[in-house]
Amino acid sequence: MKRRYVIADVFTDRPFLGNPVAVVLDAEGMSTEQMQRIAVEFGYSETTFVLPPEETSNTARVRIFTPSREIPFAGHPNVGTAFVLASYAAVKGEALPDTVLFEEGAGLVPVRLIKDNGAVTGAELLAPEALSCRSEVSLENVAACLSLATEDIRTQVHRPQVVSVGLPFLVVELVSRDALRRCVPNLQGFRAVLPLDGAVSIYAYTSDTTPEERCDLQARMFTPRMTEDPATGSATAAVTALLAQRHGKTLLSLRVSQGVDMGRASLLCASYDATSTRPCIRVGGNSVITMEGTFSL
Question: Of these residues, 46, 103, 129, 228, which one is catalytic?
């Protein structure tokens, strides 16, 4: 049968920037093995598969695959999938709720649609888990992973550490934008450290930004395949929560630029709100559809 797919660039309002995600709209009846093979075929950092929800009050069940494995949660796939579903609903003269609910491996993920003059332009997700802080990693080992010197790593706020709000990452703060620019993933370094506490990728960031960049942080994320991710919502959300807690803030909003050094500039808007009983960690941004098609399976 023919199955529809849509390619959306996430955390950008310009085609062919941001982070692309493939959204398979007709995934019912597909096996896990088939989904994994299709994710490999697309080759993006993630591919999502939209299925009917198990609870009718929810919007959809969404499965997320990287080219190597299924993951329980991720940032830009949720934002992109919500945007695609809302865009397709609008074409049919329908409207989704202001907040869609996705059933995922990490739990129920609410995603709020962002609109401009009534048109959906993006989405913002609520992380499914509170921040968890796990193992720390030595400066020497992290520096080897990124082909840097230990002097390039900043430790005043936190040491290199695995953190998660649904998907774990090893996060490291760097002392300068220059250090971030010089990062090159090293396979032997990765193999010596990762996987660790569920983390297989490294998210590096710096607060060394200029007013012209109009952001609070610049970031890069490297995968165990030695590839770079243009925009990583789940890691951005975790770092925002980590910084808020380390600085003793109950409210924190950050604009994070990512993907610049690989030519796919992205802008992620993240927030942390601990004024209620359970801290709320959100991340969102714009999206744009770039391609549509079908495949037979």
Answer: 46
